[in-house]
């Protein structure tokens, strides 16, 4: 009987740790951030953005973010996206250096759009 209780205790601990991990993992939290009004910040160039983007997203390219970050509200939540996910990581780090606390990398804009069935716009 003691072994069964220990085994069930271990299973419970593993389950709780898994749920906490799942909750804190970005991929599983992006949908909630979007539902709560996070701003999708597309960091591709204007020309790339014009070829297609997530409806309602804001476009500030990696090349201009150091000057234009003042256009953003540090109290809002931002999800950075680009074409493959590399520039969005850089912008995430730049914004965090500038004091933004709620910035998350969303990776490729098209993957984010498909994953959460978001609308696509063209200029």
TrEMBL record:
<protein>
    <submittedName>
        <fullName>Rhodanese-related sulfurtransferase</fullName>
    </submittedName>
</protein>
<dbReference type="InterPro" id="IPR050229">
    <property type="entry name" value="GlpE_sulfurtransferase"/>
</dbReference>
<keyword id="KW-0808">Transferase</keyword>
<feature type="domain" description="Rhodanese">
    <location>
        <begin position="34"/>
        <end position="121"/>
    </location>
</feature>
<dbReference type="InterPro" id="IPR001763">
    <property type="entry name" value="Rhodanese-like_dom"/>
</dbReference>
<dbReference type="GO" id="GO:0016740">
    <property type="term" value="F:transferase activity"/>
</dbReference>
<dbReference type="Pfam" id="PF00581">
    <property type="entry name" value="Rhodanese"/>
</dbReference>
<dbReference type="InterPro" id="IPR036873">
    <property type="entry name" value="Rhodanese-like_dom_sf"/>
</dbReference>
